[in-house]
Amino acid sequence: CALPIWLIDPYWTVIPPLIGHFYQLHPRAGNANAARSAVALTLTWVWSVRLTHSYFRREDWKFGEREDWRYTKMARENPKSWWILSLFAVGLAQQPMLCGITMPLASVHLSDTADKPFGTALDILATVFAVIGIVLAYFADNQLRQFMEENAARKAKNESVRPVLNTGVWRYSRHPNYVGEQTWWWALGLFSVLLGEAWALSGTAFNSLVLAVVTVMTEQRMLKNWAADRADQYRNYQRETAVWIPIPFLYPWKFGCPSGRSSAHREDSAYERLSSQ
Prior knowledge:
Blueprint: H1 8-24, H2 34-58, H3 69-77, H4 82-92, H5 94-101, H6 103-110, H7 121-156, H8 176-194, H9 202-225, H10 228-240, H11 263-266, H12 269-275
């Protein structure tokens, strides 16, 4: 029987700020600009607390009850070799990814230009977009939580459930929580650009690549496991809504612009069709 590895998810939410403090307390960090350090670390802690809270709320405040479905699938498909495969896929592979994505915190504290005065246009831009990313992920997760709770209440009353969440920020993106996360990490990376270490964005870029693959896997899994009716509704949602970033000229009806689509498509068409059945 494979040992559960659920702890890797909350591990990802608490380790980044600790890595940041490791760089802050490094002997070479003595010349780092204190204001930039405080802003970067405070934002990282805000990100961490929000995501950790969201994770455990999703798990109904239970520890170790569930693990990432991707690892469960890998363990089921590789029962004999999972003990060694998990060491690399979960244990070892996660560490360079965590170090890579937090490299901007190393730039803030250890770069040759870390003493550069805080308050430049790029400092402000990084801070503003970091906040935007955190706030977007907050609203996306809360709206998803409310959607799931409302559907659970409908099921308890033997009422039909809403097949797809396509309201709020989910009206504009199929994965606004991912968009918020990526906005946060790329905004943090702007500090590296400012301090002359743009190469530190390589970890952020790799994380985005991994998340793109995860996005495809997640949608394929939903379409495979859902009932045919609901899967069809989601395919319609896929056609009408950007996977990550909504582009107005590709999805004009999302922004109230004229288009060739009927109002039933511009509004919640999936829900309207379901309610008419």
